[in-house]
Amino acid sequence: MSRATIEKNLFLEGFEPLLKSREGEPAFVTALRHQAFIQFVEVGIPNRRLERWLHTDLTSLARTPFVLASAPHAKTLSTLDPLLLAGTRELVFIDGRFAPEFSHCGMLGAGAHLGSLDRALTDHPDLVEAHLGHCAGFDQAFTALNTAYWQDGAFIYLETGTVVPEPIHLVFLTTGGTGEPTVSYPRTLVVAGANSQATIIETYASLEAGVHFTCPVTEIVCLDNAVIDHYRLERENPASYHLATTHARLERDAQLTSFTFTVGGALVRNDLYAELAAPGSGCTLNGLYLADGTQHIDNHLWVRHIAPRASSRQIYKGILSGQARAVFNGNIHVHPEAQKTDAKQTNRNLLLSNKAIVHTNPQLEIFAGDVKCTHGSTVGQLDEDALFYLRSRGLGTREATSLLTYAFASDLFESVRPDALRQSLEKLLFTWLSSGAETTEANR
Amino acid sequence: MLEIKNLQASVEGKSILKGINLTVNPGEVHAIMGPNGSGKSTLAQVLAGHQDYEVTGGEVHFQGQDLLDLAPEERAREGVLLAFQYPVEIPGVSNVYFLKAALNALRKHRGQQELDAVEFLALVREKIASVQMDESFLRRSVNEGFSGGEKKRNEVLQMALLEPRLAILDETDSGLDIDALQIVAAGVNRLRSPERSFVVITHYQRLLNYIVPDFVHVLMQGRIVRTGGRELALELEKNGYGWLEQEVAASR
User: Across the A/B interface, how many CB contacts are shorter than 8 Å?
Assistant: First the structure.
């Protein structure tokens, strides 16, 4: 057997036992699993010969024998408290499985259904069948793996005209013990009915410091004029792999605002797809990644302008120190029929060390004539004049560096609407700067 | 207070200061004048500790300490403040945060308790009124989008807050209209005291009508070529630098 075959096999062995454990689930789900599994067998773990994996090497992931996480639920979770956000309704998942004892689900006011996706197979089978796997597909390796292996995740269904004032907080915890490396496949489905509105926050965190692999897929369907704010907060342990895919489809006049904040993980890859499927739809996709040590953080954005008069805005910023690596790939595809498209993309990177590396790559594929598309990317260091100015007023090098770095990133937080989340992000950035300052100075 | 002996400095290998000697005692105001390119701003930057300026010889003592041995932030904490010719814009850092961080860095160094947000705001409101700036400047990013005059007033505001022992004004008057000039000068004059000294670098005699110096020095080609009282500035205003340049050339 070739090496690639052996590596692939590591992800194949669990399938039959999984199917057995899922006996009794609706036939369409099992059929999806089979199709996705066959697709994964076909494509395997991607290698760097593929353009979309050019700068991200998955060799170490492919060679790690992960087992499907099956930790029993803890009775108490003191580690949960610091992750919670005031004023939100949380659903907690541990190792890809719903933890009802820590969650507050059920109806969130009239017309808002919130709960576990596994449960929704019983409660809303038609809705799940209509949408699961349709938005995200499974042509790529990790959406295929997730579709084959998912056990649970969140299900959010907003009926027509439903407005949910309270942000919904989905907390995905991985035990990440020091025993066998584990893998989990959280699957989330959001169906936002016409004229509905909600804020959804996904937090990913580890309970322990061991190696683990989180492979989540989130599908968001926004029907006409729906407004969804979607935040991802990735703060898993420094030994973890996190390869996430989010697919959003926006119907007429629907609006999606997304913010991805990545601070944890050894290797993180986010594929974010926004399909502007109908006229007047719009998305704002922002992100901030902080990487130090030997962290590798890769963000791939795929904006699909299918229909006319849709707009997209992207601002991603990164701060790197140590020997960290980051990849930003911003793909904007404008379909021949998508006239009057208005697309703007910005990627800015701040390198605090001369050993950190960023690959930034805007990709515009424009097949319509009457469009406005701009993009820009920068990679730079702190402004020496500003540093000197601050020092000449008595601020130490470390304090001045932190202040300027904070200033580089903080304007992104203005778009973060829930107060508790914004404060939490500001604190995470501040803590990261304080702890990273020593590495930073050593590498300057 | 400040003693500069035979100070030599270069930028990118080019020698700019070629042996400056200057003694400033407590309470004195020294004006340094000179044509463009004579080394005035280099002197200011060297005293503040800018990394692009290399000191190639000489000594600078400030209150008995070797100033050149101190990092820029240490010089500031010891009480040296340079008002920049071109104050730097810092997007994303609010002026009020910056001013508070600067004052607390100094207070900490002096063993004083750091001011909290409420105490600081009370203090800064009093000071900002004295330079006739609107309080909205506190919430804006440091110097970002400020006019030339506003930037210079912001420098004087920092001076009023940080109360340095030695203030160096690097062409603080350049580009100001007469109203702004008077506000800046009044701000400086309020700070004059028997313990505090000023080095006022300027291209124009006009400033010295408002900030009256004890000594006037003329800097040319990296050296102080003439020292006098206020009347020297008036003479330069009337006759330009040409006569002095000829005299210097003749004496070589």
Answer: 76
| Inter-chain residue contact A393 with B90, CB threshold 8 Å | no
Q: Do B90 and A392 touch (CB under 8 A)?
A: no
Residue A239 carries which side chain, given as an amino acid letter?
A: A
pLDDT digits (tens, 9 = 90+) for B177-229: 898 899 999 999 999 999 999 999 998 888 999 999 999 999 999 999 999 99
Q: Could you give the percent of chain A with pLDDT greater than 70?
A: 94
Looking at B55-147, list the stretches that DSSP marks H as alpha helix, in order from N- to C-terminal side: 72-78, 95-109, 117-130, 136-139
Task: Using alpha carbons, select from B218, B203, B17 the residue that is nearest to residue B4.
Answer: B17
Put residue B189 in one of left, alpha, beta given phi > 0 → left and psi -120 to 50 → alpha. alpha
Instruction: Give the per-residue pLDDT at A43.
Output: 92
For the stretch A315-358, pLDDT in tens is 999 999 999 999 999 999 999 999 999 999 999 999 999 999 99
Chain B CB contacts of A426 under 8 Å are none
Q: Which of B73, B92, B93 sits opposite A391 (nearest CB)?
A: B73
Cβ-defined contacts of B132-136 (< 8 Å, 24+): B132/B183, B133/B157
Interface contact A396, partner B, CB < 8 A: yes
- Rounded alpha-carbon distances, angstroms, from residue B106 to A387, B73, B199: 17, 9, 21
Are B18 and B223 spatial neighbours (Cβ–Cβ below 8 Å)? yes
**A392 → closest Cβ in B76, B89, B101:** B76
For residue A440, pLDDT over 60 is answered with no
pTM (2 d.p.): 0.88
Give the Å distances, CA to CA, from B148 to A4, A387, B86, B157. Answer: 65, 21, 9, 14
pLDDT in tens, B26-82: 999 999 999 888 999 999 999 999 999 999 999 999 999 999 999 999 999 999 999
Best CA proximity match to A157, nearest among A99, A204, A198? A198
